[in-house]
Specification:
Strand order of the largest sheet: 2-1-3-4-5-6
Distance between the termini: 21 Å
Helix content: 40-55%
Number of domains: 1
Structural class: alpha/beta
Radius of gyration: 13 Å
Low-confidence stretches: none
Mean pLDDT: 92
Length: about 120
């Protein structure tokens, strides 16, 4: 089963949305440091708990390019959108996301409103 950790710029309801679909998903607010968790803490936690980071923070892209892996990352590039629109986009791509990570957990996916770019 895929496991996710949702970064602070995204709503905790995204983790709940993923849990309702049967995934093991947490949000940074579920941890002691909460929204104050640094990128390095999120990376360490994702590695320790074998989670895929979901973020809008381009720093995770830079980290992945420099280190290549781990952790696996989904970088959302959609600007400010309503939660309902975010959930529709994730739902639209969810089967593809699952397939790509099941094929190779060592991935970085950039997702925008219309496509997925795979690294």
């Amino acid at each position: 089963m895929l496991r996710f950790i949702v970064d602070t710029q995204l709503p905790p309801s995204l983790a709940e949305f993923l849990r309702r679909r049967g995934f093991d998903a947490s949000h940074v607010v579920d941890y002691t440091s909460g929204a104050l968790m640094t990128d390095n803490e999120i990376i360490s936690l994702a590695i320790k708990e074998n989670r895929i980071v979901i973020s809008k923070d381009i720093d995770f892209f830079d980290y992945y390019i420099l280190k290549n892996f781990p952790p696996a990352i989904i970088l959302l590039q959609m600007g400010n959108i309503k939660n309902s629109e975010l959930f529709i986009i994730i739902e639209t791509h969810l089967d593809t996301i699952c397939r790509l990570f099941k094929e190779d957990l060592k991935r970085l996916l950039l997702i925008n409103r219309s496509k997925i770019v795979i690294y």
